[in-house]
Request: fold
Amino acid sequence: MNRRVVFVAVLVTVLVLLHGLPWWRLVLTPDWPPPVTIIGTAVTVVALIGFPVAMIAGHGRRHIDGSAVLGDTWLGIVWQLFTWTVVGWVAGLMLALAGVPDPPRSRIVALSVLVVVAALCSWGYYQARRLPRVRRTDVTIDRLGAGLDGARIVLIADTHYGPINRTGWSARLAAAVNELRPDILVHAGDLADGSVDQRRGQVAPLGTAGAALARVYITGNHEYFSGALEWVAHMEGLGWTVLHNRHVMVEHDGARLAVAGIDDLTAAGSGVPGHGADLPAALRGVDPDIPVILVAHQPKQVRAAAAAGVDLQLSGHTHGGQIWPFHLLVLAEQGALRGLSRPGEQTQLYVSRGSGFWGPPFRIFAPSEISVLTLRAGRPGASHHRTAAHHVDDNLPNPAEVVQRATHLD
Reply:
């Protein structure tokens, strides 16, 4: 069967389920008076037809921001309606076992679901639009030299500047980053949704965010929907070092650390010339005795990092699930959701829940964050083997090793 036909069939099925289950359980089952049933059915029909229209207009070639906001917002609401309708269904069965008759039972459940969804979406909207909380974590790296003990990495990711103008939020984010006085500032990808011309104003405040040692950025998967080459050039113009399968070397008081970055996993199939994750190229020329921090957008890229003996990988992409219970699918697909873990014997992984939001302007049980990672030197002389880089694409430019020294590391 043609793949496009299968895709359309699956999409229609999902749309019908998302709207049909709440309509059945919240509108029909409770046996409301006719005016309520008619209004509820009309809203369902309008939403079922209008939702895909808004999404196509908002995210298609025309890229109409107002339509995108409308479609994205409804996507978040209908997902919560579907989820809590399922929860309400289970609650209704329990009430039935307790002897509560219908239709009062179904009406209690329906009203409860609507109240919960309204409350969660209101709270989730506030959580999505607020300045991210600062989340502090100490990370011990055995091979780290004493001169870099206490170095601060400030990690932001998934800002997703998009249809909702967040220029003011962006300025507050940059100010908050500067207050943290980072030694290394990292943006782990998914900068914006839309072209540079569309989102230039929102991204501009990132040009004021500074760091003593290095300020680095990598591409996420969404850059490859929005003009990756243009965004790379724009971030370089704002003074950020773009780690396109390369590394920079940082140094303080004789201690050295390699900060490497690779393209997103989707880059190779994006059609963007010269893009595609290439870890060997990123690590080329790094002394095996020097600790390595790798910035890779997706957590599951840690499999290659662990095989190469990278000390710490920094990632985003998951948003911590963003809207409950979507985190279950994200965790199953990525293998990590948030925070610090050790997926390999030598390699640690830190996953940011992201600083912004994608699509639906809600964060439900998945708050945003600005991550502050304080590096701690481990056991002196600890052994650590890093695999030498192989299979380098000789067509890639040999990344120059940039040495920078901290001025306010404390």
